[in-house]
Design goal:
GO terms for molecular function: methyltransferase activity. Residues 9-215 are annotated as: Disordered. The chain is mostly helical and 215 residues long. The chain contains two helices and two strands. It has one domain (13-68, 111-214). It has helices spanning 5-77, 97-214; strands at 90-91, 94-95. Helix 1 (5-77) crosses helix 2 (97-214). The longest helix has 118 residues, at 97-214. It starts with a helix and ends with a helix. The relative contact order is 0.02.
Length: 215
């Protein structure tokens, strides 16, 4: 049975199929790996390029600053009036030396710098004004609070005084009432005493009469 050609053929096809499938999947993985590797390389290249650009910019900036310093020193070393003039100033239709040396780009940079400086000062002024306004508001609020507190204290004092006055008046009334009750009690006691004495007198009289009858 196992040696039958049809069986052997089916096994060979089956194995072949499996093999091709695994190879196919392996090929996919390899392609993906390759793609990722290429992407990594690309990113690395871009990163290096950006770093080089940054370095170049820094270098150019340094060179520009060195050049500027040299020009400044030259200008300061000369004791002429032109060297002491500010940049971007025009005297009798002529540009200052700094402008002549720097050229168009330098003038643009100077203008930008001056504009930024103006904006910064304006912002500083606004901040200061805002702070002053805030302080004024705070001061006003504080005064208001103090006023309210004072008024509150006065109100409480008035209420206390009213209360004490009320209590005092009530106390007077209560004292009067108490005194009246005392008087009433005294009078009541006196009345009671009189009645008791009267009763005793009558009792004694009756007793005497009874004793006389017995005799």
């Amino acid at each position: 049975m196992f040696e039958h050609p049809a069986f052997l053929f089916s096994i060979s096809v089956f194995h072949k199929g499996r093999k091709t499938k695994t190879l196919q999947s392996r090929g996919e993985k390899e392609r993906k790996k390759e793609k990722r590797r290429k992407e990594r390389k690309k990113k690395e290249r871009e990163r290096r390029r950006n770093e080089r650009r940054k370095e170049g910019r820094k270098e150019r900036r340094k060179e520009g600053e060195i050049e500027k310093d040299r020009e400044k020193k030259k200008a300061m070393s000369k004791s002429s009036a032109d060297s002491q003039l500010p940049s971007l100033s025009f005297i009798k239709g002529e540009k200052s030396k700094h402008c002549k040396v720097g050229g168009k780009k330098e003038r643009k940079k100077e203008r930008k710098k001056e504009r930024k400086e103006r904006e910064r000062r304006k912002k500083g002024r606004r901040k200061k004004e805002g702070r002053k306004e805030g302080e004024r508001k705070k001061e006003g609020e504080r005064e208001k609070e103090e006023k309210e507190m004072k008024e509150g204290r006065k109100e409480r004092r008035r209420e206390r005084e009213k209360k004490t006055e009320k209590e005092r008046k009530l106390g007077k009334k209560e004292r009067k009432k108490k005194e009246g009750r005392k008087e009433e009690r005294k009078e009541g006691r006196k009345e009671g005493e009189k009645e008791r004495k009267e009763r005793e007198r009558k009792r004694n009289e009756r007793r005497k009469e009874n004793q006389n009858i017995e005799k």
